[in-house]
Amino acid sequence: MGDKMKIGIIGTGYVGLPTGVGFAELGNTVVCVDKNENKIKALKNGKITLYEEGLEDLFHKNVKNGRLTFTTSIKKGVSDADLVIIAVGTPPHPVTKEADLRFVYEAVGEMADYLNQYTVIATKSTVPVGTGDQLEKIISEKNPKADFDVISLPEFLREGFAVHDFFHPDRIIVGTNSKRAEAVIRKLYEPFEGKTNFLFVKRRSSETIKYASNAFLAIKIHYINEMADFCENMNADVLEVAKGMGMDSRIGSRFLIPGPGYGGSCFPKDTQAMACMGRQNGTPMTLIETAIKGNQARKKKMACRILNMVQDISSPKIAVLGLAFKDGTDDCRESPAMDVVCELLQKGAEIIAYDPKALSTAKSILNDKIKYTDSLYNAAQGADVLVILTEWKEFKNIDFERLSQAMQRRKIVDCRNMLNAEIAKRHGFEYRGIGRV
Ligand code: NAD
Questions:
Q1: Residues of the chain by 3-state class (helix, strand, coil), percent to 5
Q2: From the CA of 374, how far away is ligand 1's center (Å)?
Q3: How confident is the model at residue 3 (pLDDT cuts 50, 70, 90)?
Q4: Which residue has the CA at smallest separation from atom 27 of ligand 1?
Q5: Which residues are catalytic?
Q6: How far is the CA of 124 from the centre of ligand 1 (A)?
Q7: pLDDT tens-digit profile of 228-264?
């Protein structure tokens, strides 16, 4: 192995692309592989395929210096690679909700023939416990001569902060018993030595850590959402409650932010997958099961809350601010906003939506079921109620004067507690936040 490594990344999505760009920036030669030809064509033409702050500049820089290339050929990504990172999707199975490993198996089956030197195959995709064992078996059976180790290298980046999190990880968890693989990973992460926590554990423990962490965070969100409902009934303020709770260092203040329910490409699917693993293996995960049900109900509850405000209108015009599952990303997968919008549509509402970054991804899901616009005040024009569903910072500075001129009726449901209730009321708005009366 030379000074820097040759790395193949299989799957060039929200994880694979920032990871590929990041390792290229650290001086490695990175080949990003994806089977989606349009994606690779765009990337080859210098067009970035997803929004992440700071990604585009690093992408162009590393394409230009030749360290970052794109291909649809797994062979090109895997041949001569010191390390192959699997970052393909592991979506929920439509019926059973367990993690669907089709893409992982496909990628691994295909790469087996091209392993032509000692290669570490690292699974960054979130995979059920024991998947590493399966992958090892698939490769050995297909190519008995292959010299390789399969390790678990779970990804903890947050969408919206992917570049930041790549360069400043909280922790690097590595699941392997192989000293040879450990040496490769230590070399890879040499620039982070002394700057972050490294934990080398059994492969199955590493696979479990990823699910256990995501499920815990999802439960924490569900917990504060339930607490918000409690506060509404008891005339307490959930923001004050969360602040007080968060001052206890054993609890911590993060993820104690009430809202319309957790979403995104990870929490919903990973909680479902963990619950399935628990059921299948005789250890039901009752807290996780409860959080899943509660979170599903929450989105319906939000839609009811919105409709209640305009119950006297048969086909209310609703301005929706925010479609992404959170701020800082264009990702709308499992976005609570999507579920709330669908629920509102079913009840006959007319919707016009604005999102600073996610309009085109939202369009690919909702098509022409709703109208889209490029400014929040355009969305508000003639609306009966305005609803905030994603916590984009620009919504914080809303101009109430302009808003009241634009809207048909002055009503706001703020599912992210972005606005100042007192100021809204002073401008004559009927305002409803979350967990505060
Ligand atoms: P994604 O859908 O954005 O990207 C996956 C990519 O893999 C797609 O571009 C797809 O075309 C490609 N692909 C599928 N099969 C392939 C194959 N056989 N060969 C080559 N390419 C193939 O998914 P994502 O959000 O990047 O997530 C990837 C994995 O990482 C998932 O397991 C997810 O749970 C996990 N993860 C995601 C995040 C996140 O924030 N998105 C965080 C941590 C972990």
A1: 45, 15, 40
A2: 29
A3: confident
A4: 89
A5: 266
A6: 9
A7: 999 999 999 999 999 999 999 999 999 999 999 999 9
Residue owning tokens 């006959």: 348
Q: List phi, psi (to 5°) of 283.
A: -130, 75
H or E element that contains 92: none
pLDDT digits (tens, 9 = 90+) for 373-382: 999 999 999 9
Which atom of ligand 1 is nearest the CA belonging to 15?
Answer: 26
Taking every pair of Cα atoms in the chain, the longest distance, rounded to a whole number of angstroms, is 74
User: Cα–chain-centroid distance for residue 163?
Assistant: 14
Give 433's Cβ-side CA count (13 Å radius). 23
- Structure pTM? 0.95
In this structure, which amino acid lies at residue 276?
Answer: C
Is the CB–ligand 1 distance for residue 11 below 6 Å? yes
Q: How far is the CA of 282 from the centre of ligand 1 (A)?
A: 29
Q: Which segments of 349-399 does DSSP mark as H helices, in order? A: 359-366, 376-380
What's the whole-number average pLDDT of the chain? 97
pLDDT tens string 58-114: 999 999 999 999 999 999 999 999 999 999 999 999 899 999 999 999 999 999 999
Atom of ligand 1 lying closest to residue 33 CA: 20
Ligand 1 close to Cβ of residue 16 (< 6 A)? yes
Say yes or no: CB of residue 8 within 6 Å of ligand 1.
no
Distance between Cα 360 and ligand 1 center (Å): 19
Q: Report the nearest-CA residue for atom 35 of ligand 1.
A: 125
Q: How many residues does the chain have?
A: 437
Structure tokens at 355: 């999102």
Indicate the helix (H) or strand (E) that contains 154: none
Contact residues for 119 (Cβ-Cβ < 8 A; gap 6+): 78, 81, 82, 83, 84, 146, 147, 148
Nearest to 260 by CA among 228, 290, 235, 231: 228
